[in-house]
Each structure stands twice: as C-alpha cells, then as structure tokens.
Amino acid sequence: MADLIERIVIGYGSESGNARALALRLGEQPVLQPFAPRVLELNHLFQAEPRPGDLLLIVSSSFGDGEPPANAEQFIDQLQHYAGADGLRYAIFGLGDTAYPNFCGFTKTLDAALSERGARSVINRVDADAGFDGFFSQWLPVLEKVLQGDEQAGHDLCLQVTAYGEDNAFVAPVLERRRLSADAPYAWHIRLNIAGSGIRYRAGDTLYLQPENDADLLAALAGWLGNPDAADALRDRELRQLGKGVLRELAKLSGSDELKAMLKISQRKALEAWLYGADLLDVLEDFCTPQTVTLPALLDILTPCLPRAYSIASRPDESIVDLCVREVCYERRGRARKGVATGWLLGESATVRVFSRANPGFWLPQEADAPLLLIGTGTGIAPLIGLLREQAMDSAVTRETCLIFGEKRREGDFLYRSELEQLGQQGTIGQLITAFSRDGASKYYVQDAIAEHAEYIRAMIQRGAHVYLCGNKQHLERAVENALTAVCGLEGQLEETLWQRLAQQGRLHLELY
Fold first, then answer.
1. Whether the predicted pLDDT of 99 surpasses 80
2. Which of 54, 125, 231, 350 lies 20 to 30 Å (CA to CA) from residue 220?
3. Residues with Cβ within 8 Å of residue 200, at least 6 apart in sequence
C-alpha cells in the first residue's frame, strides 16, 4: 500500500490544544517523512486539495457533548461539496470526555461523513479519553504497518473507550474481598473483574459505583407507606443524600412546620446535624404521614440513586481494578445502618455496577525525574498505592519517592504493609515514613512526621517534588499545608502561600473527601 500513497495530510480540530499538540507530534514522526506530511486545521484542510493518492490522518477532539471544535466546524460542510472525496483514504484519532453522553461525538460523525462520501478508513477509528497518550503509542506502530502495506493491521486494531455512565454502568464480577485492618470499622481491599469492558484507566483515576439500596431499608419504607410495591419502586432512587429541593417538597406535602423551620438559612447547622447519618425513612417518620406522602408523590420528587466515587488503587490493567474502602456501619435511633455503596460492595452480591472517569490532576508527573512526596491517611492510601504500582511497572524510572502514611496503630492498621515494604526494598519507595497516632504516649500524626523529617522533606520540595495528598478534607489538608510551610521556613514570607505556589507550578495534587 505504501507505494500507492503520494502524500499524507494531517488535519486537526482542537479546543484546548491537546489535539493540536498531538497532530504536530504526529507530523514529526520519522515514518511519515517520506510522505511530506502537512499539518492543517480541519477548517483549512481542503486548501491542500487532497486526492485519491493521499492519506488523511485526522486528530480531533469533540467540544462539549459531541460538537466540533471551532477550528473544525466548517469541515463537514466543506466535505459535502468537495468533488475529490471519493477514493480518499483516512484514519481518525478522536479525543473525548467520557463524562458526556455523546462521547467522541464529532469524530464519530466525521467518520460516518467521510465514509458516505466514498472515502475509505484504513485504521479503525480511535475513541480516546484523557488517557489518549497510551492509545497514541499503540496506534503509531499500526500506522507504520499500514504504510508498509499491511492493511489488515489497521482493521484488527480496536482502541475505543466505552463511555459507561450512570445509565449504562458495566456489571463487574467481584473477584476478591479482603479485610485489611484488625478492628472495626474495617478497611477492605476489593478487586473487580473488568475484562472485556473496554474500560481504560490510569492510577489516580476514579471509579464510580452505581449502588443498590439496602433491602432492609426498602422493606421498612414499604411498611411505612403500607404499599408492598414500594420496595421495588424505590430500589434505584436516592434515599440517603437528600437535597434541600427534596426536603422542601416533603415539607410542602406534609405541611410540617418543624421541617419548614429547619430548612431556613439560619438553621443550616441544625439541619446538617439532624441529617448526619439520616435517610428518607427518618424524614418520613419524623415529619410526614402515609396519608400526606404517598409512593407516587415520592417517585415524583426523588432523584435516581447517585453514584459513589472511589479512588482507584491499582495500576493500569484492562482486566481488573482495585479499590480500598472503609466500611460504614452504625446505629441510629435503634436501627442498624450501612453505607449505601460500601454496604452493597461488601455484601453478598456477586457483581457491582461501575464506570470510570479520568482524573489527570492526580496522575504521575510527566517529568520522569520529578521527586514524589506522597501523603495519605487510612484508606487515603488507595490512589497512592495505585501510583506506586504504576511507577513500579517502569524499571527505567528511578525517581526519588517518599511515602508518608498515617493510621491509628501499626499492628492492625498498617494497610498494605507487606507490599509497601516490598516496594521499598525494590527501590520504588525511597523513604517510607509512618505515623501511627495511638501507638505512643502522645498522639503522633502525619504533620508530626513531616516536622520530624523536616530537613529531608524540605530538600525534596526544593528539588521540585510533586506533593500528592489523599485523606479526610476536614482535618488533613490544613494540617499538612501548615507542616510543609513550616519545614520550608516560609511562614509569613510569601505573598502567596506554599500551597498556592505548588498549585500554580502544577506540583500539588489533592484527592480529599
């Protein structure tokens, strides 16, 4: 096939700059140089007057929910009026955001439009998300094979992220539930099977669980309503995270002056305190009657069950995904409660419904020599061990890495202890620092560990270390920020805070909950 190609024309459509950068990178590939590649915006591509002897390589993002980027919005109309489209060959590398229902919508439309005009695809269309670099590195060798005459290689390649979401979550079999801690509430390691799903992720990304409501709660609601159909009808509705809109509708239906009073702005803290750990049944029992709030009325005002987000704890793998979660079990007003997602995840179900979203702000830095300062408490170790596992895959990367891990007790709460110690022995972790708050006579937290290792940590930050922090937002972020500011000797010395400076330099990565 290569001897039949006279030129290569590269067209790009780019809104944020990623597709443009990728197109320029493509144009510099040595394998393309014999074909004198030209790189043009899609709006200007027909200035090159492409003809049947040419190969069009199109790299484009989709703007918003499947719309063309501004510099590509004229291309399809121009294509409809271009006489030389029949016989053209092309390959499309699409970039999109799986958060949108019409994922990679523009490049899918582009593919169909070129085919309808008689052009022929030589490589199956790529539908990539924020992790497009991995797809690009797999796509380039196939492009080279196609240029050398191996057409089958292009037809065999399948690089298409499936855009799972709330309405079409992937049903993943549960492979493993392993308890990691000795005392309740327990931390658990969960492994799910995603083989064949098309889900692609990197360490640092987020897995969303689309949970099912607790059977006991559904039965209790059906009993309160006096309607046996209520359990099935409410199975997929949000029964725990009740927004003010839902509460206002319940107050209106019930006529409850007490609930109306709690919804006033002046009572915000009182409302938050009352709602902590509460669910729909609590609201109904305290403020409503089955005569004023019926099942049809509830179905009108309740939203679908919200997905719950968890940091991925594994390195990139097309077959499995790992989570590290803390179970939620408590009693309120004489009734045993479980977390909506953890109760389902740690229950007896053989499968769970999931979808993933890219989280580039928590990926490993592109600079292979940038030091890493990883700080996590409790199950906040999840994305950090994912990053360490991903880093361990590449033996060529020898970056300096320090992990500071905090929990209550060394014996019983040292999550992933053997694996972390092994990562230390093989050099992936250069310094493993622990802070177990209940082991000594006085409490000792990660901020105390930072202070104790001040000289080492200050030197890391001065050498350009990236700081990754994962844990409880309420207590952890401010304490760690203050501790790092202190060890760097910067209290009151900067017009901007250390946190602001690190963020502006792209060296601060937060995953707080």
1. no
2. 350
3. 129, 131, 134, 135, 161, 316, 318, 356
Return the SS3 of 250. Answer: helix
What amino acid is encoded at 37 in this protein?
Answer: P
With a CB cutoff of 8 Å and minimum separation 6, the contacts of 303 are 237, 238, 243, 246
Q: Is the pLDDT of residue 10 over 70?
A: yes
- Cα–Cα dist 315/312, whole Å: 8
Q: Strand 320-326 and strand 308-311: pairing? A: unpaired
Backbone angles phi, psi at 449, to 5 degrees: -65, -40
Cα–Cα distance, 54 to 6 (Å, whole number): 6
Q: Is the CB of residue 127 less than 8 Å from the CB of residue 108?
A: yes
| Tokens representing residue 484 in the block | 């790092």
Paired sense of beta strands 187-193 and 320-326, if any: antiparallel
What DSSP state is assigned to residue 201?
A: -
Q: What is the DSSP letter of 69?
A: P
**Cα 315 to chain center, whole Å?**
13
User: Model confidence at 357, in pLDDT bands (50, 70, 90)?
Assistant: confident
Which neighbouring-strand residues pair with 338?
329
pTM of the shown model: 0.82
Q: Are strands 120-128 and 89-95 parallel, antiparallel or unpaired?
A: parallel
CB contact at 8 A, 135 and 159: yes
Band the pLDDT of 1: cuts 50, 70, 90.
very low
